[in-house]
Amino acid sequence: MIIRKSPAELEKMRKAGILVYEILQHLTRMVEVGVSTHDLEVAAEKMMKDAGAKSAFKGYYVPAAGGKYPFVLCTSVNEEVVHGMPSVRRVLSSGDVVSIDTGVSLEGYFGDSAVTIPVGEVSDEVKRLLKVTSESLELAIDQMRAGNRLFDVCGSVERHVTANGFSIVREYVGHGIGTSLHEEPQVPNYVDRRNENPRLREGMVLAIEPMVNAGRPETKVLSDRWTAVTKDGSYAAHFEHTVAVTANGPWVLTRP
User: Fold this and answer.
1) What is the DSSP letter of 173?
2) How far apart are CA 107 and CA 9, in angstroms?
3) CA dihedral (171, 172, 173, 175) positive or negative
4) H or E stretch including 61?
5) CATH number of the domain to which 95 belongs
6) Is residue 126 one of the residues assigned to a domain?
7) How does pLDDT run across 114-145, given as a tens digit for each residue?
8) What residues in the chain have per-residue pLDDT under 70?
């Protein structure tokens, strides 16, 4: 069941979303050669605590992994697509990219967002990967209008990514969001005709998150049971926003 939110509920989600935005802005400024992904984790956890928020990720149980996720951030570097775990041993180097995905619960409502950041000098192809992935998210956001359908959102990502020669990760998808981190519907980054195609209505909120590979689309999960990587070792990019359908068009709750 898709749960539509009232204006008052959207305002609460907005508070959570802006906190996520502020955390990601701070972490983006921290990213440089020599910083570890653990450093990012420590900074994010302090910001959440200071704001009186709970992590959306830490302690989240995932049956496929057989346990609860132990961190407030997912920090996925280079070929890591999603769910990379912060580590003191993972120190960023020039030419890397790091995807930082995080979410919070504030006053009972969730916000969720992700950004992929270049470290030092990266190749032109990597720059293009990040640009195309970010653009695909903006195209999807523009489809978040009452009367459109879910496939309009999904298809806008797929068309832009494939037209630019990159590939869509198919194993991981976006999702509805509200008083739970993951609600209906699932939001693939491609048109999956096995799924329903609901019409978008005011009050629907989706976490839209293109995950795009420079090479082949296939992924695998490492022995830690969390980190998903590209099978061919190619770089990946991940951008995400929490977006509401309103009478005035799309409202991105995770940026000012």
Assistant:
1) -
2) 10
3) positive
4) strand 61-62
5) 3.90.230.10
6) yes
7) 999 999 999 999 999 999 999 999 999 999 99
8) none
Query: Are residues 207 and 175 in contact, defined by beta-carbon separation less than 8 angstroms?
Result: yes
For the chain, the domain total comes to 1
Cβ neighbours for 78, distance < 8 A, ≥ 6 positions apart = 96, 97, 235, 236
Q: Which two tokens stand for residue 62?
A: 């995932």
C-alpha span between 127 and 119 (Å, rounded): 11
Q: Which of 1, 250, 246 is nearest to 140 (CA)?
A: 250
Count CB neighbours of 91 within 10 A. Answer: 15
Q: Tell me if 119 sits within 8 A of 33, measured CB to CB.
A: yes
- For residue 207, the one-letter residue type is A
Position 2 in a domain: no
Residue 1 lies in a domain: no
Parent domain of 144: 7-252
DSSP designation for 149? B
Query: Smallest Cα–Cα separation from 230: which of 73, 66, 64, 82?
Result: 82
Pairwise CA distance, residues 211 & 203, whole Å? 25
- Sorted by sequence, the CB contacts under 8 Å of residue 131 that are 6+ apart come out as none
Measured between its terminal Cα atoms, the distance across the chain in Å is 29
Q: What is the pTM of this model?
A: 0.97
* Per-residue CA distances from 141 to 17, 86, 106, 135, 199 (Å): 15, 29, 23, 10, 15
Q: Which residue has the tokens 């928020």?
A: 53
